[in-house]
């Protein structure tokens, strides 16, 4: 899917960022003069190993409550929760990103900063992002990506902590945004509900009754606060594959006097 492709690009970006940082460190140590390239680690395996060492994997755990703090993760860590079931994770230390893969009945409490402000969830069931006994996020998570999931529950305690939810091939995504402790915005979306289509003739969206459960829907949807309402829109690919919505693309063309 497009999200899988974006995830691969994300890994590559981390890889090249790591190499750039190493080169910058070497230049700084030599007064800004580029050092001999042979002085850099020459083994691709070494570089990949260093990159992966920044990923903290928590896999195949069940029926526990686990706290992740500065003793187990660092601010440069990408927290990777995989194949866990009936489990609650409480993240009490800053990290770079949180990724959840093939988990069931998982709850996540985020109590410290997520540097990229991003959580990715895919191929999982019954996932709740919450704070203590209240199902809400206690830190800024501007973007949550949900791919091939069933029953994902998200609740933000402050509209300022929310920017968007991007989902595809997910049965039910429930979103609540609170303000001053009260529910301000509530939306249930997902493949169980009829979704908006673009105005492009080339795009045909099946209704829920027409869906083939063995066939993945190639389209992604984005939920944002627009005019003080939670709105679901289909993502399209504009020029050079840039992700946007038909509404925003039409507005951009009008603003730039483009008629085609």
Automatic annotation (TrEMBL):
GO biological process: cytoskeleton organization
Chain intervals for the UniProt region annotation (Disordered): 186-215
Pfam families to which the protein is assigned, alphabetical: CAP_C
Residue ranges occupied by any Adenylate cyclase-associated CAP C-terminal domain in the UniProt entry: 57-179
Compositional bias (Polar residues): 189-207
Single annotated GO MF: actin binding
InterPro entries with a match to the protein in the record: Adenylate_cyclase-assoc_CAP_C, CAP/MinC_C, CAP_C_sf
Name of the protein in its database record: 16769_t:CDS:1
Organism of provenance: Cetraspora pellucida
